[in-house]
Every structure is written in structure tokens, then in C-alpha cells.
Amino acid sequence: MKFFIKTFGCIQNTADSERIKAYYWNKGGKETKNWKEADLVIINTCIIRESAENRVYGLINEIDKWNKKNKRKIKIIVTGCLAGLANEDKSGKKLRQLKRDFPEVSKFLPIEKISLKVEPMRNKKTAALVTISNGCNNFCSYCIVPYAKGREKSRKFEEIIKEVDEAIKNGFKEVMLIGQNVNSYGMDINKDKSLFPKLLEEVAKKDLEKISFVSSNPWDFSDELIETVAKYKNIDRLLHLPFQSGDDEILKKMNRGYTAKEYLDLVKKIRDKVKGVRFSTDIIIGFPTEDEKAFQNTVELCEEVGFEIGYINKYSPRKGTVSAKLYKDDIPMSEKKRRWKILDELINKK
User: Fold this and answer.
1) CA 19, CA 34: separation in Å to the nearest integer?
2) Interior/surface letters 338-348, b for 16+ CB within 10 angstroms, e for the rest
3) Most-buried pick from 148, 202, 215, 252 (CB within 10 A)?
């Protein structure tokens, strides 16, 4: 049986696909890089933005046409965030219709069905991607992830360390720890905010040239975590610290749980402790009611921090989220594109 994996979305989906690959290899399958040669296509989906979801439907439609034209029976499995919504009353309606319309779609497979105990077949040759948790408890108003992936669930400490050791044994010199919010790792186990710093320290003690972690939220970036980063030189000095907006009213509507000043205070605290630290970030522009003044507050925050990399996203309402229910998407796309260009030139093209 030949299988093909198509991955959309974030680095966590990339890590999940490495386990999916191992799962089907263990079942006797062989991976192909051309879906037209496959017996089975596994689509690991992202629904953070509507465009990513539309690309999934586009690929399914393309496979359906290919099957009819060439009298093939390529089967499709949909996994990832989109599959997590398959059983939702409203959000899953489109998915269930998809299954009725396209007989190739054999099932929706929640990623949890692929056990994290399956040793991944790593695609990246530089850094080993190690998932430390799945799901999210934050419920930012614009984000569909908690509904698609469920509440945050941390892996066992020992299980993570064992996977890191296996990666080192296989020749990896870099490790990236991955979760929707790595800083809150272990809070579902024993409410201990110090568990992620302890995990990070345990990994940093190993024979590794670089350890990085994504994604980390400002409200859980503890003093102990800062001390751990400062203590170990092999922990990457480029820290990813999403802020999303520099305007307090927009942050409140986003349910981000901090103000622009609190974010800047955290950046200063990290800079005071960690020599040579740099920052990358995530930004959403065009959130409902974001006027020019609110946008300029974001620009000013970017100028003050001096981010090395900015992942800038145009707001897209996702059905089922709080922001989609409460606020009209009132910023024209032309204005979103203008703001995107300003920030991209400020951060990424300096």
C-alpha cells in the first residue's frame, strides 16, 4: 500500500505528520511523494485561516476528479484540526457533507488516534520536533484550536525525555519542543507552573547544540523560565513571543489576558536577564474594530521591541469562535493588506 501525506499549517502539524508516517510504515505501507501514485492520501489539516481550509477542499476535489478520469480508487483520510470538528453540530456540518459528496473520504481521524508513543520518522534533518502537549486551554476569541484539538493535554515528563534521548542517539544535535502553549506544560497534571522550566533544563543538560521551543504565551513566561533560558547557552536566544496586537482594547477583545505595557515589561525583564536575546512574534491585523489609532499602537510596539521575525496574519473570522459571534469583520481586505505591508516592511524587510 502506497501512501501520501499532505501537511497544512503549523510546526505541530509537521511533527504530527512525522508520527503518521511512522504509523503507516509500521503497517507495511510505503510513502510516495506523488499523490497520483498513492492508494491512500492522508491530509493533515489546518483551520486557523479560511484559506488553509479551502486548500484542503481543493485537494479533495482534485483527487476526486483524478479518480473519475483515471478510474482509480485513491482513498482519503482527513486528520488534524479539521477532523477534530467533524462531530461538532454546526462546524462539522460542512465536513459531513464532504463525506457524502466524496466517497474517497473514508474517515476523519483525530490525531490522538495516532499514539504519541509511535516513534516519529523525522523529515527534518536538523532539528528533532518533539511534541510536549496537545490542545489548548486559552480560548483566545479569534482561535478555533481549542474547539478542534480540545483541552490541553501534557505528555508524561519521562516519555518526552525518552524521545529526546532517542533523537540524540539518532544523531540529532538540535531539538524543538512543541505545544500550543509550551509554558503551561504540566498544568493539567499538577498545576505546577515550574514544570516546563524543569523539562527545559533537563533537555538543556543533554549533548545538544540548540534547544528551542514554540509557542510560548506571555502570561505564562515565568521568572523561573527566564532564569533557565539565561542559565543554558544551548537554549536558542531567538525567542518566539506572540503579542497579536499592541492596543489594549483589541487585546481585551482577543481575550489575550495582558496589556501592551505588560508585554513590554516582560520583554524588558527577559532582556535584562538573557544576554543576546532576540524576539520573533505573531501579529493579527484587521481584527474587528481595529481603527488606525489601534493599528499605530501595534506599529509602535513593534518599533520598540525590534522583532527579528514577524508572522503577520490578516484577521479571518472562523465559524464557532467568540470573535466571529460577537464582532462584524468590519475592516476591508484592502486595508488589511495595507497594514500587513507596513508591518512586513518594518519587521521582515529591514
Assistant:
1) 19
2) ebbebbeebbe
3) 148
The predicted pLDDT at position 254 comes to: 98
Residue 75 to residue 324: CA distance in whole angstroms: 34
| Residue 333 region by backbone torsions, left for phi larger than 0, else alpha for psi between -120 and 50, else beta | alpha
pTM (2 decimals)?
0.90
- Examine the pLDDT at 89 and tell me if it is beyond 70: no
Residue 144 has pLDDT above 90, yes or no: no
Residue 128 β-bridge partners: 175
Cα separation values, 235 from 203, 227, 277, Å: 9, 11, 10
What dihedral angle (degrees, nearest 10) is formed by the CA atoms of 239, 241, 242, 243?
A: -140
Using CB atoms within 10 Å of the CB of residue 118, give its burial: 0 to 12 exposed, 13 to 18 middle, 19+ buried.
Answer: middle
Cβ-proximal residues to 163 (8 Å cutoff; 6+ apart), any chain: 119, 130
For residues 301 and 264, the answer to whether their CB atoms sit within 8 Å is yes
Q: Which ranges of the chain would DSSP assign to H, the alpha helix? A: 11-26, 50-70, 81-84, 93-101, 145-149, 157-169, 187-190, 195-204, 223-231, 248-254, 260-273, 292-305, 322-326, 333-347
Grid coordinates 505591508 are at which residue? Answer: 341
Name every residue whose Cβ is closer than 8 Å to that of residue 2 and which is 6 or more positions away in sequence: 29, 30, 31, 32, 37, 38, 39, 40
CA gap 67, 130 in Å, rounded: 36
Residues in CB range of 83: below 8 A, 6 or more apart: 45, 95, 108, 109, 110, 111
